[in-house]
Amino acid sequence: MDTPTKTLTFETRLDLIHEQDAALCQYAELWNQVKFRWFANLQKPKAQQLNRTQFMHEMGMPFSYRVFQGVRQSIKGLIQSYQTNRNNRLVTLDVKIKQLEKTLNKLEKRCDHVAEKGCPQQAKQLRNRLRQKEVKLRRWQQKQAALVAEKQENKTPICFGGRKLLKERQTLRTNEGIRDWQCRWHEARHREFLLVGSHDESWGCQNAQLSPSEQEDAYQLKLLVPHQLRATFGTTIHIDRLQFKHGKATIAQAVWQNQVKKHDKSIKGQSLSFRFKRDKKGWRLLVSVEVAGPTEQAEWIDAGQGVIGVDVNPDHLAVVELDRNGNPLQHRTFDLPLHYKNDAQRAAIIGDAVRDLMDFAAQQGKAVVIEKLDFQQKKRQYQKQDHPQYARMLNAFAYGKIKDLIETQSIKRGIRLYHVNPAYTSLLGRMKYRDRHGFSDHHAAALVIGRRHYGFKEKPPKQLIGINAKGTVKTEHPPVRMALGDFQYYTKLQRWYEPLEKSLDFLSGWRHFRCVNRVSYSVEARLGGRPGMNPDLIQESTPLLSAHPAL
User: Fold this and answer.
1) Over 90: is that where the pLDDT of 356 sits?
2) Of 304-308, 442-446, 470-474, 508-512, where does the model show the most confidence?
3) Sorting pLDDT into bands at 50, 70 and 90, what band is 151?
4) Phi and psi at residue 194, in whole multiples of 5°?
5) Which residues are in coiled coils (predicted)?
6) CA triplet 504, 505, 507: central angle to 5 degrees?
7) What does the pLDDT read at residue 299?
8) pLDDT at 360 over 90
9) Nearest 5°: phi and psi at 520?
10) If you average pLDDT over residues 415-429, what whole number do you get?
């Protein structure tokens, strides 16, 4: 198995003198001018776009090839980020429009019913509410049509500097306010630049070389100045006393590897990328390092003795520990209270939950299994829940952040991470394992995720037993099976199961049991543990269950 890798970024604050600060500002301005021109070139039709050589010749060769690679990577990342966000917005709008159309149909029927009953005041209120929702529907449909047209035309309208600051210009009337805005606009558009490295370059990067300093746990940075600025600032800029609060061991390993490579050419160096970013306090330096897991197979915590199945949800991580035969041993819940939190608080909460998850996996000595799912599919899965509180919770859902942190921590700690197909894990968990093991829907899904890693075939129960609020026992048989592993069968099974689950109005939710073998627990315990169940109803239902032929 190949060793997985992950790019990690560590940050430090630069302590600069006035000349160094001015040099970085001039460097950022020149770099961003090339960036804007290259982005404008990519927005042209394919036949009119210039290649790198033609473009650099037209710009007067301001940068070397390696510096220009940073420009290309920065633009590529911006375009991919915008396109991903646009796809997510289309998914969200599609679900919202469908839900609003259902609500409109219900309101129209209710309005007609109220009008027939002769309640003019109530009918007027319903018509006003109906008109408001129709306006909202048209607005969402217009947004959806605009995004679809933009996607078909392959446009990427990115505003360098921010749309919020750009719109602020329209509200200014005085010359002093306009001049102040122009300064802030220029600073927002020229506040960062990126220098990418390669493992075959000196010290991991040709244009910014990070090397050890005389001071302990400190480094010095030698920055190569572009040709246009050398007459003013010289050939290089030396920045000393760089210290990193986080990632000290990772950066020290990368610098040592590049230092050894200078004497032994057979050793592969470590590429380092540097992003310089200016904020209100000054310049920050972000160093990106590609980190790999343990090189030896024996150093990894693998799935030989079982796995940890994880189901990622908007408000918690549902975790189930399994043995090698797919049997659950214990289950945990790691909460994610992300609602009413800012970005920094959400990042801290997610980091703590993932850390606790990895501590649990390391303590048990088992690998982790998660869903192979992107954000759009995950959000579409949960947007079917039509509830305002759930909608607010979903708005704060950071599935991509959770997944990235799990992948990063697994590499750092040497814990194998596996991805499985998430299709119908929730359905099979509810039908087979929810009541059998006393799990929630999410823990049952985590159990199916862990079992799917070992390739276990999940056969639906031969018959399901449900008890409605009146104490009536109902037995249902799933449709005839098709070939195992054929997900078309699970699609049909889901269409059969979901209406059945809603039809039995059990007080704490419909419960079902697999009745292939005799259950090991009593009927009284099965019913007595349900919150809100009437004792008289338990007493009346017990003989019905005991007399049932399936039991």
Assistant:
1) yes
2) 442-446
3) very high
4) -125, 135
5) 90-150
6) 130
7) 60
8) yes
9) -95, -5
10) 85
Q: State the CATH architecture for 307-454.
A: 2-Layer Sandwich (3.30)
* 466/462 Cα distance (integer angstroms): 14
Which residue, 416, 423, 415, is CA-closest to 378?
A: 423
Instruction: Please give the torsion angle defined by the CA atoms of residues 198, 201, 202 and 205, in that order, rounded to the nearest 10 degrees.
Output: -40
**Which residues is 415 bridged to in the sheet?**
301
> Per-residue pLDDT for 469 more than 50?
yes
Rounded Cα gap, residues 87 and 336, in angstroms = 25
What b/e sequence results for 365-403 when a residue is b if at least 16 CB atoms lie within 10 Å of its CB, and e otherwise?
ebbbbbbebebeebbeebbeeeeeeeeebbebbbbebbb
Q: What 3-state DSSP class applies to 458?
A: coil
What token pair was written down for 384?
């079917």
Please state the domain extents for the chain: 307-454, 462-508
Is pLDDT above 50 for 61?
yes
What is the structure's pLDDT at 392?
57
The rounded distance, in Å, linking the Cα atoms of 296 and 410 is: 15
Q: What is the mean pLDDT of residues 480-495?
A: 61
Residue 119 neighbours by CB distance under 10 Å: 13
Q: Beta strand pairing status for 328-335 and 316-322?
A: antiparallel
Amino acid in the structure at residue 480: V
The DSSP annotation for 187-250 comes to HHHSSEEEE---TTSGGG-SSEEEEE-SSTT-EEEEEEPPGGGHHHH-SEEEEEEE--SS-HHH
